[in-house]
Amino acid sequence: MIVVAIDGPAGSGKSTVAKALAERLGLEYLDTGAMYRAVTFAALRRGIDPSDQEPVARMVRDIELSVDQDQVIVDDVDATIEIRGPEVTRAVSLVAANPEVRTEMRRRQREWARSHGGGVMEGRDIGSAVFPDASLKAYLTARPAVRAQRRAQEVTDLDYETVAADLARRDALDSERQHDPLVTPEGAVVVDTSDRTVEEIVDDLVAHLEPHGE
Ligand code: DC
To answer: How confident is the model at residue 166 (pLDDT cuts 50, 70, 90)?
Structure first.
C-alpha cells in the first residue's frame, strides 16, 4: 500500500500538489484539514463552544463524516461551503488542539487509507503522527507573503492584511499546540513551493517515491 503524506502550513500549496500527485499516481486523495473543519462546523451548529474540550470530544465519536474531493457531508448536512467560511476558519485551530478529536481523526484517517488501498493525504501531522512509515513524506513551505497572497485569492471577501494576520495566528496555534503540532516530519522531503510550478514539484516527489517501489 502506497501512502504519501503531505504536510505544511496554510497556503504552502499542499492541496494543489497533493491533488496533482494523487492524479499522477492513480491514488485517492484525502484533505484531512477538511475533517477538522467538518468537526468544527458540527460543534458550531450544535451550539457547542469549540474551545470547550469535553463536549467536543463527546460529540466527535458519534458524528458521521464523509469527506471527498468535491463534497463534505456532516451528519447528513452538506457542509462543503461552510467549512471554508470565516466562522469555521476562525475556530478550527481550537478544535484541532483537542487531543480526543485528534485521536479520533487519526483513527479515521488510517481507516480511510486501509479501505482505499493507500492514498495521498494532506494535513499537518500526517508524516509525523498518522503515517510515520508513509512511502513518502513531504513537507511543503513557502514564503509568508506568498502563502498570504494565495489564501487572499481563495477568500475573495477578505483583504490581504486580514488574511495575512489570520494565517500568522493559525500558524502559531498549529505549531505551538501541545498535541501533534505542525513539525517537519523526520525523513521528509522539504519543498519550498514559492517559485516552482506544480508540475516541477510533482516530478520531484515522484522521483523520490520511485526508488522505494511498492
Ligand atoms: O489545511 P486547512 O487550513 O484546511 O486545515 C484546517 C485546520 O486544521 C488547520 O488550522 C490545522 C488543522 N489540521 C490539523 O491540525 N491536522 C491536520 N492533519 C490537518 C489540519
So the answer is: confident
